[in-house]
């Protein structure tokens, strides 16, 4: 199995998407997570707008802890902007930013978080 270190740029496959991030796997079977805060620098309503299960993406390794990779899509490579900066899928999405958005979505986020916690405890 390959050894990955902080700063490595590697190709990974997206294996699952949750509201808090995307799970990834390397070609040699090492798994990890791209946390939602490492997908883009803006507010993200749905990670599925950015990533799809089965998609192959280049990530930068932030750390490897307990055999799991923590990765980011927000990096520059050879002077090119990172993955999240090149996404063109949002031209038609109209969003209002600010505290009103948080107020409107907080209950939904809380319910989803409680469901995920409950699901995790039961598995």
Quick synopsis:
Residues 7-74 form the S1 motif domain. With 123 residues, this protein is of the alpha+beta class.
Walk me through this protein's architecture.
This is General stress protein 13. It comes from Gemelliphila asaccharolytica. With 123 residues, this protein is of the alpha+beta class. The protein is built from 1 helix and 5 strands. It has one helix at residues 99-122; strands at residues 9-18, 21-25, 31-35, 56-65, 68-72. The protein has a 5-stranded mixed beta barrel with strand order 1-2-3-5-4. A hairpin with a 5-residue loop joins strand 2 and strand 3. It starts with 8 loop residues before the first strand and ends with a helix.
**Rg:** 16 Å
- The residue fraction in helices comes out at 10-25%
Low-confidence stretches: 83-93
* Global shape: globular
Strand order of the largest sheet: 1-2-3-5-4
What's the average pLDDT? 80
Q: What share of the residues does DSSP label as strand, in percent?
A: 25-35%
Q: Tally the helices: what do you get?
A: 1
From the N-terminal CA to the C-terminal CA, the straight-line distance is 28 Å
Task: Quickly give the structural class.
Answer: alpha+beta
Q: What is the N-to-C succession of helices and strands?
A: EEEEEH
Sheet with the most strands, sense and barrel status: 5 strands, mixed, barrel
Count of DSSP strands: 5
